[in-house]
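Lab notebook, bench 4. Still working through the backlog of constructs that have no structural model yet. Next entry is a single chain of 198 residues. Request: give me the structure tokens for it.
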Amino acid sequence: MPEGIAGVDEAGRGPLAGPVYAACVMLDPARPIVGVADSKKLSAKARQDLAATIREQALAWAVAWATAAEIDQLNILQASLLAMERAVGSLSRLPGEVWVDGPHCPKLAIPARGIVGGDASVPVISAASILAKVARDAAMAALHQDFPDYGFDRHKGYPTADHLRALERHGPCPEHRRSFAPVRKRLADPRPGLRDRL
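Model written out:
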């Protein structure tokens, strides 16, 4: 039987590499979590601490993702919605309604409502934003072990000056999003890169 509200948010729409992550959280009204806020406004340590508390105290939570290849195949918006759909589908209980950060909602069998700015104003969405961000950061740190030339542990795949220089120097790795303009441009460059050594 459906119960309660689930919040959903994603992390990683803007990077040039790696998957896009989404999280879905159902908070326990009897166990409020102090300090939950938009993940972008929290320090890395605060996010880690809050993520541990959310995982421990939430009624239910799930994290899912869509790969870089799926992003290239579907586009980043549709891949983000797919990750959200997977996260909702992985919950251990069925919510009565899903509240999603932003104007777009994934295709679900239960009611869903988009809330622009929800990650900063709705605690259950803020909690999802924290879990998604922490999970994606961990995935990018792991990716750094496989592809240390790019600095994924520092910039998490976002198009920083350091990342763009590494992309220019080494060419894309298999986890770069081919459909994103800086990667597409480098792929068209005839100079060899890391991709040619894999």
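Notes after review: Residues 148-191 form one domain. The chain has two domains: 5-144, 148-191. Flag for follow-up if needed.
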